[in-house]
Amino acid sequence: MINGRINWLLEATVYVEIQDAAGGLHRFECILDTGFDGDIALPLAAIRRLGLVLSGRRFTILGNGDGVFMYTYVGTALWHGGQTQVTVLQTAGESAIGMSLLENNTITMQVWDGGDVLIEERARL
Questions:
Q1: 27-40 burial by CB neighbour count: b if 16+ within 10 A, else e?
Q2: What's the mean pLDDT when you consider all of the chain?
Q3: 6 located within any domain
Q4: Which residues of 50-78 are buried (b: 16+ CB within 10 A; e: fewer)?
Q5: Which of 13, 47, 77, 104 could form a disulfide with 122 if both were Cys (CB 3.0 to 4.6 A apart)?
């Protein structure tokens, strides 16, 4: 179970820990972005701090409808108490978690400033 909060902009946020190249953990506050179909998006400064290696680029449609190529990196995140490999997209904006990482989870939100966010992993059969 992952806990977070609704911020004053009514964005659902959670903290995610991502491993750097030496195995150390760094904590990032990320918004839950249902319009983002990837795993995690981080600004270049965070990617450099983690020492992630460039793995390629992908074409992405932004929220405003513009299509752009974004650089991708491979990283490891702690998610529901275990390590999971994630694709990290380089963004000029804020850190975000996308629907690919949220797949097979139930999200419960109290949508007011300071409200709780709860991400629960779907039970595996």
A1: ebebbbbeebebbb
A2: 93
A3: no
A4: bebeeeeeeebeeeeeeeeebbbbebbbb
A5: 104
